[in-house]
Specification:
The complex is a heterodimer of chains A (219) and B (450). With 219 residues, chain A is mainly α. Chain A has twelve helices and no strands. Chain B has a four-stranded parallel beta sheet. A four-stranded parallel beta sheet of chain B has the order 6-5-7-8, sandwiched between helices. Classes of the chains: A mainly alpha (219), B mainly alpha (450). At the A-B interface, helix 2, helix 3, helix 5, helix 9 and helix 12 of A face helix 3 and helix 5 of B.
Chain lengths: 219, 450
């Protein structure tokens, strides 16, 4: 078990981070080169003002018609995404790992709060799962990959939560947690989790078209 | 008032689709799909498809979805799933029967109104994805017959309705004579080089709504506008090739239009109350020709009337009395931001304006645009059953007192006529031009009442 932990938190973690950063940069550069090669006109229509106008609208809860139409979803999706990003970056034990490995450290969340945020992510994942299965318009467009990416995102939080509370075998859970975290990081650039990077671009382009050409609101 | 949506019992027969599909093989389908995707698409298609998180939040944007009791087959992403996703996933290896269904979805169950783009958190342009499907269908030769005939008309005559070369100036002279009975010194100036404005219309106007040209001429005359209309082809601003994915013909038609304006050395193109023509001239056709924005200032009728009224060049003798409600056409509102100007005009002309809800950029589509009405009689019920929600929206405005529905767009006008008739909403439908003509101050003609 010890050697497994060392493997997942050592070489495998390096691989995961390299895939995450390398893959993300590759995907974005590839997209921009493809625009330059085949759809250069997109650059012509891009506008900082309208890109930001659109992005800001959509990252504020209830600021758009569609967010207001779905209040529960809006609350869940915003808290889910915020906790999903904030918790792993500012978790105390993660900060300690950075400190031990590279001598760098930053502010950390109180453990109790991090625990609550973890539960929010898990409950959010459950909500998305239930929504996907029960809402006909979502179920109709659901494929196996949708469940896979949801599981990929939920797994580090579920295993981390269990490990933190030292249920079952702590060493096993901790190893599985690190493995799940590695899988998630590596999967982001190569699955639809890449909406993390691409959504701002698609939003910005639509915002620019609506603002600059159509003179209309896109929210 | 509301009839339950009845399933069409007779399968749709459309020669264009059926004959087109009968000529297809899986090998040809794959070759065409892959050639369009490889040669004509790029980061947009790929990023949209790979970024979509399958959340279904676009569903409630679509009038087809709402009108079919939230049937997911009619949601925007549902239509994408049934068309381009499958084509991409199977690398183009889909059956002729699949293509048949794709034609029905892309050409008759989506108006390209882009309301869904306002509901997608990522701003994915689903109308663009459907347009790619239409382009593939065009290249496969399986476009519905009626709209394909219209595209053929564009290709042959540079107008939408097979109006022949001599019929066009003849119609203008006929309307000039008619109008001279009311205003003796009225002219419809043809080929006036250096006029401020070239006025352009869609081909249905000379074909069967010539009174609209008459009304426009009266408005131009009273406002003292220095205007002209071409006597040659290039007068038609409409564009069904744009909606069949026949971009080459779209480009030819728009080039003829812009070059006619250039030949006449006008400063601006003013266009009648048409939405899709605005999209073509202002947004799509110019891009195909390489112009980021149109080479001429394009002024839609709504904006033109707004400016004339604001400048006092048209005066209102007595405001229109029946209560009106205003339909915001997608192509000039979501596509051109003319919603506040439309309200300015409505309030200037009418005593009582009652808003329908939703309105402005969020208005429900008429279900005729995007070429859907041009797929003709085989798909009439697709449009009507696909827009029950519009009837409900209109009926709500009627219960608040609206008697007249202003629809400043030709497609909206015709589509709403079918909706209002079928669901027995009981609203009279008018263009802004109809009302302006009725309420404006006009010189009293010598022969009036003769």
């Amino acid at each position: 078990m010890h050697s497994f932990y060392n493997f997942v938190s050592g070489p495998l973690a390096w691989v995961a981070f390299i895939l995450f950063f390398g893959g993300s940069i590759y995907r974005m550069v590839h997209m921009l080169l493809l625009v330059a090669k085949k759809e250069r006109f997109i650059f012509t229509y891009m506008s900082w003002r309208y890109s930001l106008r659109s992005i800001l609208r959509w990252i504020v809860p209830f600021a758009t018609v569609n967010w207001r139409r779905h209040p529960l979803l809006t609350v869940v999706t915003f808290t889910f995404h915020i906790c999903l990003i904030i918790t792993p970056v500012f978790l105390f034990s993660h900060v300690v790992l950075w400190q031990e490995a590279f001598g760098i450290s930053w502010w950390a969340l109180p453990d109790g709060l991090a625990d609550v945020m973890t539960v929010i992510v898990i409950l959010g994942a459950v909500y998305f799962l239930v929504r996907r299965v029960t809402r006909p318009e979502v179920r109709f467009v659901t494929s196996a990959s949708d469940f896979v990416i949801l599981a990929i995102v939920a797994a580090p939080f579920v295993t981390g939560f269990i490990a933190y509370h030292q249920w079952f075998s702590y060493p096993l859970m901790m190893s599985l947690h690190v493995l799940a975290g590695n899988i998630m990081l590596a999967a982001i650039p190569f699955t639809r989790l890449s909406h993390m990077f691409f959504a701002p671009f698609t939003r910005a382009y639509m915002g620019s078209e609506f603002g600059k050409v159509r003179h209309a609101r896109d929210w | 008032m509301m009839e339950p949506v009845k399933k069409t019992s007779v399968p749709v027969v459309d020669d264009g689709i059926d004959v087109g599909i009968s000529r297809l093989t899986e090998a040809k389908i794959a070759a065409v799909i892959n050639s369009v995707i490889d040669a004509e698409t790029g980061a947009r298609l790929r990023t949209y498809v790979e970024t979509c998180i399958h959340c279904g939040l676009c569903s409630e944007a679509c009038h087809y979805y709402l009108s079919h009791d939230n049937d997911p087959h009619f949601s925007p992403v549902g239509k994408v799933k049934q068309t381009i996703w499958e084509m991409l996933k199977r690398k183009g290896r889909v059956s002729p029967e699949f293509i048949r269904q794709a034609v029905i979805i892309a050409q008759t169950q989506c108006n390209l109104c882009k309301r869904c783009a306002q509901y997608c958190p990522f701003g994915i342009d689903i109308a663009y994805l459907i347009s790619v499907v239409r382009r593939i269908i065009h290249k496969l030769g399986a476009t519905p017959r009626y709209i394909q005939d219209t595209a053929h008309s564009h290709a042959v005559t540079m107008n939408q309705m097979w109006v022949k070369g001599d019929e066009w100036p003849d119609t203008l002279q006929w309307q000039e004579e008619e109008a001279q009975a009311e205003i003796p010194d009225l002219r419809i100036p043809m080929e006036k080089e250096g006029a401020d404005i070239m006025y352009s219309v869609i081909a249905p106007e000379p074909k069967f709504q010539a009174q609209l040209i008459y009304q426009a001429a009266v408005i131009m005359h009273v406002a003292g506008v220095n205007w002209t209309m071409p006597a040659t082809m290039g007068w038609d601003n409409s564009d069904m090739a744009m909606f069949t994915g026949d971009n080459e013909i779209m480009g030819r038609v728009k080039r003829a239009h812009f070059e006619t304006a250039a030949r006449l050395k006008v400063k601006k193109i003013v266009m009648g109350e048409c939405g899709h023509a605005f999209r073509s001239v202002y947004d799509m056709g110019n891009r195909w020709l390489g112009w980021a924005m149109p080479p001429f200032t394009i002024v839609h009728a709504i904006e033109f009337y707004h400016d004339l009224i604001q400048a006092g060049r048209i005066k209102i003798a007595k405001k229109y009395q029946p209560a009106v409600t205003l339909h915001d056409p997608c192509n000039v509102v979501r596509g051109g931001g003319l919603h506040e100007k439309a309200r300015y005009v409505a309030h200037a002309l009418c005593e009582n304006v009652i808003e329908m809800h939703p309105n402005r950029e969020h208005n429900y589509c008429c279900c005729a645009g995007g070429g859907v009405i041009n797929t003709g009689p085989p798909f009439k019920m697709t449009r009507i059953e696909g827009n029950r929600v519009k009837a409900e929206q209109l009926f709500e405005a009627k219960t608040k007192g609206a008697e007249v529905l202003i629809a400043p767009c030709h497609n909206c006008h015709s589509g709403l006529h079918d909706i209002v008739h079928h669901y027995e909403v009981g609203l009279e439908i008018k263009f802004f031009g109809d009302i302006i003509y009725e309420v404006m101050e006009k010189p009293v003609g010598d022969q009036e009442g003769a």
